[in-house]
């Protein structure tokens, strides 16, 4: 009988100890874990991209340089540097990675993909940008190179094809 009580007490003590480790204290802030997207990851992606502001655009730029970028080499570099995430080299291949996100549910750090012209019926991907929040895209094309541009209500929105969350 004494052994049974001892074992029962031991088991209750272990249970309480585990509960204390797992359960938050009353009034303590509860952090929600995100399986993928997180504000800190998104902020790191944008801050990494910002350091390349003004770098010239060059179609077909090598992934091994930061002196010039094309849209997909820029996205590839930023994600690798900020999060250690490897993405394919070209925008069409990048559009096949991650989870599809609607235009109305874009979050900072999402990849946004575009077709060549608002007038074409083709949805062939020709450009990629990083959604920077607050109706801003972080990307590179022509002049001025790496830059922020508005998204909604612009030609970019009219060229929108799809968006992906890759974090």
Low-pLDDT parts are 14-35
Strand content: 15-25%
In total, the number of strands is 6
Secondary-structure-derived class: alpha+beta
The helix/strand order is: HHHHEEEEEHE
SS summary, helix count: 5
Relative helix content: 25-40%
How would you name the oligomeric state of the polypeptide chains in this document? single chain
Please tell me how large the radius of gyration is.
23 Å
Shape: globular
Largest sheet: 6 strands, antiparallel
Question: pLDDT average, as an integer?
Answer: 86
Write out the strand line-up for the largest beta sheet, numbering strands in chain order.
Answer: 1-6-2-3-4-5
Distance between the termini: 56 Å
Q: Could you give a short description of this structure?
A:
With 167 residues, this protein is of the alpha+beta class. It has helices at residues 2-22, 39-50, 71-83, 91-94, 155-159; strands at 99-100, 111-114, 127-133, 136-141, 145-150, 160-165.
Describe this structure in words.
This protein has 167 residues and is of the alpha+beta class. 33% of the residues lie in helices and 19% in strands. It contains 5 helices and 6 strands, in the order ααααβββββαβ. The protein has helices spanning 2-22, 39-50, 71-83, 91-94, 155-159; strands spanning 99-100, 111-114, 127-133, 136-141, 145-150, 160-165. A 6-stranded antiparallel β-sheet has the order 1-6-2-3-4-5. A hairpin with a 2-residue loop joins strand 3 and strand 4 (136-141). Helix 2 packs across helix 3 (71-83).
Provide the fold topology.
Elements: H1 2-22, H2 39-50, H3 71-83, H4 91-94, E1 99-100, E2 111-114, E3 127-133, E4 136-141, E5 145-150, H5 155-159, E6 160-165
Antiparallel strand pairs: 1-6, 2-3, 2-6, 3-4, 4-5
């Amino acid at each position: 009988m004494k052994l049974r009580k001892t074992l029962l007490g031991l088991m209750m003590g272990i249970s309480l100890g585990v509960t204390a480790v797992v359960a938050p204290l009353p009034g303590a802030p509860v952090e929600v874990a995100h399986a993928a997207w997180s504000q800190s990851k998104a902020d790191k992606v944008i801050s990494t991209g910002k350091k390349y502001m003004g770098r010239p655009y060059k179609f077909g730029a090598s992934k091994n340089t930061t002196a010039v970028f094309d849209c997909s080499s820029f996205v590839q570099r930023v994600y690798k540097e900020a999060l250690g995430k490897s993405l394919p080299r070209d925008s069409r291949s990048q559009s096949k990675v991650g989870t599809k996100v609607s235009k109305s549910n874009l979050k900072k750090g999402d990849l946004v993909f575009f077709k060549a012209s608002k007038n074409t019926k083709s949805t062939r991907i020709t450009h990629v940008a990083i959604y920077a929040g607050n109706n801003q895209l972080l990307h590179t094309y022509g002049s001025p190179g790496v830059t922020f541009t508005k998204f909604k209500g612009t030609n970019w929105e009219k060229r929108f094809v799809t968006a992906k969350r890759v974090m």
